[in-house]
Design goal:
mainly beta; OB fold (Dihydrolipoamide Acetyltransferase, E2P); 3 domains; 1 helix
């Protein structure tokens, strides 16, 4: 148990029986009355976001969330399948839990899997990842307006807006938080 005032951004707490990630935290000490912590909590299982006010004197239970390495195998439409790299056990995470992270997963790559009570609840992906462009329309001659872009398809099926000079088989770096093109990567 920890006090409400000791809650930090990035920690996992048990709230209403589920593990929640503290996505944002603001400590408030009003001139009159007791201090409290305003928290933005993200349900680690469903992705639902709550905004809660917790008194600094209240006790909150910290969730026993741990991580392990898992290799991404494949997606079957509703679930993403992984294999524990130490025990070779296979497990799956529903597409609803992964949300927008799913299209960034590359088959055969290893990721950190967040676990709670032996149940996978999240996948940690790098902030920037390199992908190969599998489909890029040709640039039209004379289309050189400053900042001109086109939509390309990456190896995972993800569509990204890129500058017009990007071609099929180019490698590009993509920001996984925003889904935006960062730069072309030279081998």
């Amino acid at each position: 148990m920890i006090k409400g005032g000791a809650i930090e951004k990035g920690m996992y707490i048990l709230f209403k029986g589920d593990p929640y990630l503290v996505a944002d935290r603001e400590f408030v000490n009003p001139g009159k009355g007791a201090a409290f912590t305003r928290c933005k909590l993200k349900n680690a299982k469903t992705g639902a976001v709550l905004r809660e006010t917790i008194k600094t004197s209240d006790n909150v239970e910290e969730a026993n969330v741990f991580d392990r390495d898992g290799q991404y195998l494949y997606v079957d439409g509703e679930s993403y399948h992984f294999m524990d790299v130490e025990t070779y056990d296979q497990f799956e995470i529903s597409a609803a839990v992964l949300g927008e992270k799913g299209p960034y997963l590359k088959e055969g790559d290893q990721y950190r899997i967040m676990m709670w009570e032996a149940e996978p609840i999240d996948v940690i992906i790098p902030m920037k990842m390199v992908f190969t462009v599998t489909d890029a329309p040709d640039a039209i001659k004379g289309d050189t307006v400053s900042g001109a872009t086109k939509t390309v398809v990456l190896e995972t099926g993800l569509s990204v807006q890129v500058p017009i000079f990007i071609k099929t088989d180019d490698k590009i770096r993509v920001n996984t938080d925003t889904g935006e093109y960062v730069e072309r990567v030279n081998d």
